[in-house]
Design a protein that fits this description.
16% strand; six-stranded mixed β-sheet; four-stranded mixed β-sheet
Length: 272
């Protein structure tokens, strides 16, 4: 389904959003941009229940919602896709639309260009106070506990653990077969990374000098949607309970990432 067909479907339906986390917030932003948010009847989650409302709409437990013909817009990370699909199928919700592949185009628009960019230039343009790339490198180096605790700042711990397992599969594929250039990262014209943090880190670990990228125009949505939960500054990491040793490791990895001459060391460690 392309974005035009998706928006037509939403506008002609009464839809339910499955999910109440970061991806659901991205979807809500996308629907607001396209003036389609009034088609949403409620949010739905599989567990929890402590959150009673989101964006002015009720949040219901899956077990308390009667199956209907409503389309369920599944707003969860791709790492949880199979589990969520099984849950919804079992509950009788068969009209499911997984929105993650559509979100970035809905929010940021069509890319203005697609080309290879120098990896060292991309890394040099990133804010050195943001440790979101270093956190991904923890996962590449199989520092699972630190990776999951850092990632849980903007996702649930179970989702972070699923993402860790997916990262190991992606790492094995890239180290064995090379980077799949059919999956470019997404950045804006200011070289701010929108999607592809894991792939960026893996490309660096593999010693790549260039990485394929789709480039969109700078958008105010970036600043609205991304905050310290995503960027992982030291202050946020400490607030979340990471120790001084944890933070020191992330700082060391930050230096490693920003120095292309040291990427081979990360590659060797990542293959271990």
């Amino acid at each position: 389904m392309n974005t035009e067909d998706f928006l037509t479907m939403v506008r002609n339906s009464r839809v339910i959003i499955f999910g109440a986390g970061y991806v659901a917030d991205l979807l809500w932003e996308a629907l607001q941009i396209h003036q389609a948010a009034d088609c949403v009847t409620c949010f739905m989650v599989s567990r929890g229940g402590e959150q009673q409302a989101k964006h002015g709409l009720p949040v219901w437990l899956l077990q308390d919602v009667e199956p209907s013909d409503s389309a369920v817009l599944v707003a969860v990370h791709e790492a949880g896709r199979r589990e969520v699909q099984a849950l919804l199928d079992k509950a009788g919700f068969h009209h499911q639309v997984f929105v993650y592949p559509l979100l970035h185009e809905l929010i940021y628009g069509q890319p203005v260009t697609e080309k290879k960019i120098m990896l060292k230039d991309l890394l040099a343009m990133q804010n050195p106070e943001h440790y979101w790339l270093a956190a991904r490198l923890c996962g590449v180096l199989k520092q699972k506990d630190l990776y999951c605790r850092a990632m849980a700042l903007h996702s649930s711990l179970p989702t972070a653990e699923k993402r860790y397992e997916e990262l190991q599969k992606l790492k094995s594929s890239i180290f064995e077969n090379g980077y799949d250039r059919n999956y470019p990262i997404l950045i804006d014209t200011d070289f701010r990374i929108i999607d592809g943090l894991h792939r960026t880190v893996l490309a660096a670990c593999c010693g790549m000098t260039e990485i394929p990228a789709r480039i969109v125009n700078r958008s105010p949505a970036y600043d609205r949607l991304l905050d310290d939960r995503n960027f992982l500054p030291v202050s946020r990491l400490r607030e979340f309970g990471l120790s001084s040793a944890d933070v020191l490791m992330l700082q060391d990895l930050q230096v490693l990432l920003r120095d292309p001459d040291k990427h081979s060391a990360a590659k060797t460690a990542g293959q271990g």
